[in-house]
Each structure stands twice: as C-alpha cells, then as structure tokens.
Give the backbone structure.
Amino acid sequence: MARSMIKHKNLPHKFWGEAVLTTSYILNKCPTKRLKVVLEEAWCGRKPSVKHLKIFGSLCYKHVPDARRTKLEDKSEIMILIGYHPTGAYKLYNPVTQKVHISRDVIVNEEDKWKWDKEPVYSSELQSTFIYPSSSDESDGGEEGEPVTDIVQNQGTESDGNMNLSSDDDDDRIHMIARTQRTKRVPARLNDCEVTQDNAVNDEGDLIHFALLADSEPLNYRDALKSNVWKKAMEEELKSIEKNQTWNLVALPDKKKRIDVKWVFKVKLNPYGTISKHKA
C-alpha cells in the first residue's frame, strides 16, 4: 500500500517512511475481519471520522498568517501532503525549502501533483525541521537606523534534523545550501552605557530577582497550598461558585468524557503597580 501511494504521485523514495506511517494511520480506521468494525468503534462505541483523509502526495496550499507576510506577498504556499499529525493537523512538505510543516489551514488539490523534474534541488536528503504555526512572527533584526550584517555560511547535504530519510536518486552533484544569519550591533545610544548579559547578575541584581519571585503566581494547586494567601483566594472562589450556583454535580452520562479543569492563579495589580488582589 505504501509503494502504491508513492508510485501514484511519482514521489521520490525518500518519502517511504511517511508513506508507511500514513498507511498505518489509514488501516487503523478500517474495519477488521474479526470484529467487522473499526477498532476505535469497538472501543468507544462510535465510528471515527474519515472526512479529513486526502490522497497521499497531493498538492496543497498552506495559509500564510497575516503577521508573516506583507500585503503584496502570497497568502498561501504550495506544499505536498505527506501525512497526518496526532493533533489532527496535516503534515506538509515544502519542496523548495525541504522542511516539514504542521498546519490545519490547508486546501488540498487531490488531482494535481508536484513536478519533480522541475524542482530546484538543494539537498539529496529530506530535512526534518518541523515548523508549527504561531500567532506572531518573531524577528531578530537590529534596531531602526542601525546596520545589520548578513553572514552567509555554506553547509553540506547533512541535515540538522533528527530524522534523515535517504534518497535513491542517482545524482553525483553536491548541492550546497546557503544559510543567512543576522548579527546585531549595539545601538549608538548605548555607547555611553555599560551593557552586560542578563545572566551576569551582580549582588544587587540578585536582590532584584528575589523581589520579583516574592509574589510570583503558583504554577499548580500544590504550590498554592503552601501559601495562606492563595488558600484564602481559593476559598473565596469556591464560595462564589456555590453562591452563584455555577454548576451542579451529576453522574457522568454514558459514552461521555469529562472536561478537565484546573486552578489558575493571578496577581492583580492596581494603577500604582502594587498588589491589590490574589485571584484564583
């Protein structure tokens, strides 16, 4: 089955690993000869959805968030569908940058496929750099008005990722990848100042760090129990829930799952920057 999926879209053999994973994913959603039903249906009592399944190796268009593009740049990138992620998103391969992306905002064109004979080859191996969608695009550029130096380094065909899938293409040429890195310069306004690293803390800095941690917010319920202030905040919250009759305790219906909840602790500040309330 994996070989058929690769041949159908004329994919290189380096995608055999992704094809095997996709095959297992699809077979787990098929009925078995013994049970006559899908394993998930036999366990949970409901049939799994298959409406998200698409043809392996199809061309797809991944949405580019507004924060990562300008008004004149394309709103989508052409990629190749190479599987499914446990979170429910699609695994996509960018044939230009040779990186694997995870995204839900995808339009799949199952009738088309990538023309590998016209692909600009950069490396003979599949890189395994996973890029997850983010709400904001972080930039490491220098400040406005300050020059930024670009350093170009050449690297070989060895991938920096943890997953290296070998290619069966017979190509004696070695393609080099140019990676651009940016270095920062200290702004001119800081020339008369003493600039130190954040981890180079002196005695005075230690006191500041301790002061910041003095009224820190607990990360979990156990940490909150160690403080009388947060205990009182939790008691007030529970009294408010009982008074407003936010919910009633009932038996869990059949074939239903509970929604997990957890305590969230916040320190409320007044306009002067001092603590006004501990909220749980």
About this structure: The first strand starts at residue 59 and ends at 63.
